Amino acid sequence: MTNIELDMNQYMINQKPYYLPVGDEVEIFRAAYLSKIPVILKGPTGTGKTRFVEYMTYLLGKELKRSIPLITVACHEDLTTTDLVGRYLLKGEETVWIDGPLTIAVTSGGICYLDEIVEARKDTTVIIHPLSDHRRILPMDKKGKIIKAHENFFLVISYNPGYQSVIKDLKESTKQRFIAIDFDYPGRENETQIICNESETTEELSNDLALLGEKIRNLKGHALNEGASTRVLIYAARLIKQGIPPARACHVAATSLLSEEKEVQSAINEIINSIFP
Amino acid sequence: MMSYDGTSQNTDSVILKFMRLKEFQEWKSIGLQLAKQSRELSVEYFSSVPNGLNSLYVTGHQKFFKALRLISASDTQKTVRFYQNGPERLLELNPNVRDTILEMSIAFSDGDADTLIQIFNKFIAVLSPLSYPDQDRISEFADEIGGISFDAAKAFLKNAALLSLEISECFLPYWVNQGLAVLKKNEGQGVDYFSLKEKQGAAEFNKWKFAVAYEDIKGILSVFATALCGKKMLFEKVDKAEKPNRFYSIYMTGSQSKVLLPPHYAIGRTKEENFRLYKIAVAHQAGYIEFGTFNHRFDIIWKTLNRFRIHDLAKDIFFIIEDARIGRMLKKQYRGICHQLDQSLFLEMKNRDSRGNNLLSEALEVLLCLSLDYWPLDFFNGKEKFPKIENKMSSLKKALKISMDGFSEKSESSWDSFLKAKEVYEYLAPLAEKNSYSPPRPELVPERPDLPEILFPGKSKKNPNEIIEGDTGTDNDQLMVPIKNLLIKNLKSANNAQGRPLTEKKGFQSINEDNVMEPDDLIAKKYSFPKRVAKTSGCDGPFYYDEWDYIHGQYRNKWCRAFENATAPGHIDRYNRITEQYRLLINKVKKQFQRIKPVVMETVRKVEWGEELDLDEVVQWAVDRKQKRSPSEKLFIRKEKRPQKTAIIILIDLSASTDEQIALPEKTINKADCACMRPSYSPDVYFQKNKKIIDILRESLVVILEALNELGEQVGVFGFSGQGRHQVDIFPLKEFTEPFNESVKGKICNIQPKQSTRMGCAIRHASGKLKQIESETRLLILLSDGLPQDLDYGEDRNSKKYAINDTMMAFAEARREGIQPFCITVDNTGNDRLKFVSDPKSYLLINDAHSLPEVLPKIVESLMA
Ligand SMILES: Nc1ncnc2c1ncn2[C@@H]1O[C@H](COP(=O)(O)OP(=O)(O)O)[C@@H](O)[C@H]1O
Ligand SMILES: [Mg+2]
Question: To the nearest whole percent, how much of chain A has pLDDT over 90?
Fold first, then answer.
């Protein structure tokens, strides 16, 4: 039985990601990291949760003068504990153990980011319980052993409380092991800056797009289930930069994916052409 | 055409079957008159029953023979032709317009037979290609125009097809009314107007062709408004002329949560322009919220304005200035709207009515232009526009200009507008004559941010809605309804005494036999008959539904109007009595339901643990191992239980015929026999005096609801009835959200036979409700006691085809929405009624009414499984 050597470099963030702090999230995250309290990032899609974790990983690494690996797992319905912890593989006549992402993070002392945790099966989520309280241990049933987490190991999970149904909500016992940082759409001025930075378009255009985002988000809960995310607005900005007329760019980036209802689409298009001359 | 051999005796009896005595005599008398001229033709006349004659209504017969009599005065041959062909041709038309067409042909003919026939044919040729509603409208307008000028009516009819194609049904009345006004002044011009020759006629035609109605765009605009101001806005249609909330402003005020909009815009040159006017009006009113007109300071502003000596003037001034501020803010915020706003403003200002010609109104007009920065003419040369000010008050004008100068750049909030309004008020108040300011409008009741809507004293009596959904609403049948109902009531006792159950049809016919009211009187009255039954309290709606017209193979747009009516709860004792009587059955059904309590067992494959090995996976595992690949560990199958959600809506036919008594099965003479027949019923069930269909419907409902309640399924119960397409009544007995409580039980006790059965509309309403419920299985169960039947729910009174087709179509629509519809019909009379042309999977006819309480749960069970 051998362990496959891992290239930890792939988990390192070497370039500073662009992130614009909107509130005190940086301070909270830093404090949580230093005191080893796991964090839930809560908020709709495209509000910068993933970007924030990358940014914080980089920032904390610089501040603490050590390189911190970030291990991200996109959760999905079929995700099992095996996928997280690790499995035996056959190699020749041998069986080889290969660590799952969670184990890698636990042993290497990295930050493990479980993205969209509620998408995973409920029995899977339970595996993080002993890791996320004072025990900080990971039971590995397959290997029949329990490993203690590296002192720098840190757990971050994200979830979007909006569109999941009740069945898919997080367990109370899971929630109570974390502190929560709320993410929301960044507000027009901040968003203007973000769009401007990410797409390298003009300030005016970015402002218009941010305004559009704000207006469309007003429909959330009325005509739409989800507002247009910052990501979508950035896409629109990039299209415009490539020479697509603004109204058209917004239509393809936002309108047609947000709703299938003709009436709602027409209304959104009216907003678009109210904003873009 | 069916011909009858032999003597006229045969024809007599055929005709007498469907015609009243009075018309029958007229028929005979015309024939005898013919006999005097030509024996042969008279024989031909007497020996034939023209196709379609039996499908006409009484008034149709009257009119038809009136016309025939007129023709017979001059030409025997033509009389017979008209007799033979007329009725069939009439059937090409909407039943509602047939009488009108005959009337008009007679009226326009001036007593000349040839003209009459010619006009009659012309009418049919013009109208028959149109849809029923269009026929309704066009013929009514023709009637109205013809009342003034026959030529004009002719010209109008010539353009009928074009008009109904190009001008939306809700705007046609405007175009016609304009024409009527012209016609009344000058016949020649009027005729030209209707033939679209004259400039005004054509211009008006274009205007209404491009007009946009509130109904058509409110959906889009409501979403638009919510997006702009971030909250759900209510929309209300308000006729500016009827309810102007501010005399001098361009926009209506609305309130914190309500947007007021006119019923239509027609001043634009294109549809887009008219739509944009709406859009700008909405953006502007949303702007009040977005830009803080109704913020926390509004209360103070409003109170202060009210303290001014001429407070209405103060408020007008404030809103003129505030409106302009909102406009500027909009332009600043929404770059795309600038151009649209300017254009719309230009249109509005151009089409602005004069607002009186005293000094004050002129000054206000100047203020409006100043604040909007809108200049039709150069301000200081604008002599024609503002003559009074120019001559007498140019100093005032200058003062105003100075006061407003630079204001727009500085103003930020509604507070700034308020301060400016105070200043301007000081200039203008002295102009008010006798210190009064009374533009012709209702008094303003202050709107406050926390008020849900603005209230105006004396809410308008007339709903501007009225002309909208294709309503011409003057069918004679509709007139009959109140009388008919009265009659049914009165006749019931008489008939019951003879032990003969009274059907709805009988009641209807008796009106005619008894000559209660000459139909001519009815027609005279038709103009005074309220087009719409007034909305009463405890009533929700209207809801509009399309109806399927199988003859034309198309939907009639928004043809039916439904209301939801509250049912007062009856005494709960009755309910308890029923549960007692059916206790055994209820328990049985409950148990049955419990057993089948639909849970879906989901098989989950490829899992790491489970009851069984997944063979495929195991094989794959072995293969993988052999091939030295790492095998998957998900080798199991597991069953997971999940309760299935079912939503059931039960629709109960509350037509007048449910008042019929149930025939007792002959065999069941004593209680012992009864007990054998259905052990789970209490024998009392059979021995209730005067038991009616409605009672058994109620009992079945109680049984099924009791059982379903145990299951915790989502259940809705709705009764329906109505009279005519304008008044389909829905009676919610239990909404889906309503808990199954005393109040629901009480309402179920209180279901009563009402009027007719327009099933299609009721089904559409129910499907709409069911659609909104989140559920895996959706059932729509319709309990009825016969075929759908309603006024003009069919091409003539003998045919049920139209009604059945519409009902089937409504079922098909429901299926498309993922709903399983099922109809149970209790056929009490044992008559050979037409059966639904439908598959047995969704239709069941039962002859013994008493079996319904037992059958209904079985149906529900089989549908749920
Ligand atoms: N505060 C922020 N600073 C910088 N970029 C942001 C911010 N918020 C959102 N973004 C942008 O939005 C996009 C989506 O963010 P992401 O982190 O993927 O969202 P989430 O993980 O919440 O779905 C990113 O590509 C980023 O450009
Ligand atoms: Mg993400």
Answer: 59
Nearest neighbour of A82 by CB, restricted to B219, B338, B633: B633
Whether residue A274 and residue B340 make contact (CB cut-off 8 A), yes or no, is yes
CB of B230 less than 8 A from some CB of A: yes
CA distance A194 to A233: 10
Phi then psi for residue B861, to 5 deg, are -60, -45
- pTM confidence score: 0.62
Low-confidence ranges of chain B (pLDDT < 70): 1-9, 240-248, 353-357, 375-395, 433-539, 541, 595-601, 641-643, 663-680, 682-689, 791-792, 794-799, 828-840
Check CB contact of A87 with chain B, cutoff 8 Å.
yes
Test B223 with A218 for CB contact under 8 angstroms.
no
> Which residues of chain A neighbour B226 with C-beta distances below 8 Å?
218-219, 222-223
3-state secondary structure chain A: CCECCCCHHHHCCCCCCCCCCCCCHHHHHHHHHHCCCCEEEECCCCCCHHHHHHHHHHHHHHHHCCCCCEEEEECCCCCCHHHHHEEEEEECCEEEEEECHHHHHHHHCCEEEEECHHHCCHHHHHHHHHHHCCCCEEEECCCCEEEECCCCCEEEEEECCCCCCHHHCCCHHHHCCCEEEECCCCCHHHHHHHHHHHHCCCHHHHHHHHHHHHHHHCCECCCECCCCCHHHHHHHHHHHHCCCCHHHHHHHHHHHHHCCCHHHHHHHHHHHHHHCC
- Using CA atoms, how far residue A55 sits from A14, A32, A49, A75, B108, in Å, is 10, 15, 10, 21, 87
Q: Choosing among B223, B275, B329, B341, which should be mutated to test the A contact, i.e. which has the most A CBs within 10 A?
A: B223
CATH code given to domain A2-182: 3.40.50.300
pLDDT of residue B840: 64
Encode pLDDT of B199-227 as tens digits. 888 888 888 999 998 888 888 998 899 99
AA letter at A257: L
CATH of B572-580+646-658+691-864 among 3.30.70.940, 3.40.50.410, 3.20.20.70, 1.10.3720.10: 3.40.50.410
Instruction: Say what the pLDDT of residue B539 is.
Output: 65
- On the 0-12 / 13-18 / 19+ scale of CB atoms within 10 A, B450 is exposed
Write out chain B residues lying below 8 Å of A205, CB-based: none
Query: Which residues surround ligand 1 with Cβ inside 6 Å?
Result: A 18-20, 22, 45-51, 186, 194, 198, 230-231, 234
* B263 upstream amide cis, omega within 30 of 0: no
In chain A, where are the structural domains located? 2-182, 188-275
Q: Hunting for tokens 């009436």 — which residue is that?
A: A263
Which residues is A79 bridged to in the sheet?
Answer: none
Residue of A nearest to B628 (CA): A90
Determine the distance separating the centroid of ligand 2 and the alpha carbon of A53, expressed in angstroms. Answer: 10
Residues with CB under 5 A from ligand 2 (ion): A 50
Q: Which chain B residues are within 8 Å of A87, Cβ to Cβ?
A: 630, 633
Of all ligands present, the nearest one to the C-alpha of A48 is 1
In chain A, what residues touch B227 (CB-CB under 8 Å)? 215-216, 218-219, 267-268, 271
* Per-residue confidence (pLDDT) for residue B455, from 0 to 100: 29
Q: In chain B, what are the domain boundaries? A: 2-187, 212-435, 464-528, 572-580+646-658+691-864, 599-643
Best A261, A274, A275, A276 member to test B by mutation, with max B CBs in 10 Å, is A274
- Hey, which residues 214-273 in chain A have their CB within 8 Å of chain B? 215-216, 218-219, 222-223, 263-264, 266-268, 270-273
Which residues are within 8 A (CB) of B12 and not within 5 positions of it... i.e. 6 or more apart?
none
Q: Do B630 and A218 touch (CB under 8 A)?
A: no
